[in-house]
Amino acid sequence: MASFNFFICLFALIALLSLSTSHAAPLAPRQIGNLTCNIDRIKIVAALASTKNALSGLTTAAANDPAASAAAAQATEGIDSADAGVATIAKALLTLQAAPAAARDQVGAGLTQAQTALNSINSTDPAVTAKLSSAQGSLTKAITAGQGVVDNCK
Ligand SMILES: *[C@@H]1O[C@H](CO)[C@@H](O)[C@H](O)[C@H]1NC(C)=O
Ligand SMILES: *[C@@H]1O[C@H](CO)[C@@H](O)[C@H](O)[C@H]1NC(C)=O
Questions:
Q1: Whose Cα sits closest to atom 2 in ligand 2?
Q2: Where is the secretion signal located (predicted)?
Q3: Under a CB-based contact definition with an 8 Å cutoff, are residues 127 and 19 in contact?
Q4: Quick one: which ligand is closest to 123's CA?
């Protein structure tokens, strides 16, 4: 979870910078984004972290259900990929480079992969369904924040 905390701090710092736009403007390129954009970035990092947490619980709960285990593994792979995309974007911002469009696509594709995998789980085991709905709830927040990034980080 250390990388998630790092990115939350990074985006919070950028958000603070974006508050004083007149000072930040000469230093910061346009892709640094405004306050709304950076709050959305913080939200997606936090939501990815809680999705990952819930998926780890789901993986444990579904250990004896091969189909659900496979779906949980697919979902985890999607979240890891989305996380890697966010890391690429954060590193670009940190070095004042334009965030690569491919990284943003990677985040979107990873979130979709995770959602499709989770939606395929039809277990009725209460331990599994509890973790599943927790993972789906966090994932929905990540998707909403991701849409916010697309809308507000222009
Ligand atoms: C959902 O149910 C269908 C039909 O029983 C089954 O083939 C499929 O593997 C199940 N999916 C998961 C992820 O458990
Ligand atoms: C940030 O920028 C987006 C996109 O240009 C805009 O829709 C939003 O209202 C802005 N937010 C603030 C607080 O300026």
A1: 152
A2: 1-24
A3: no
A4: 1
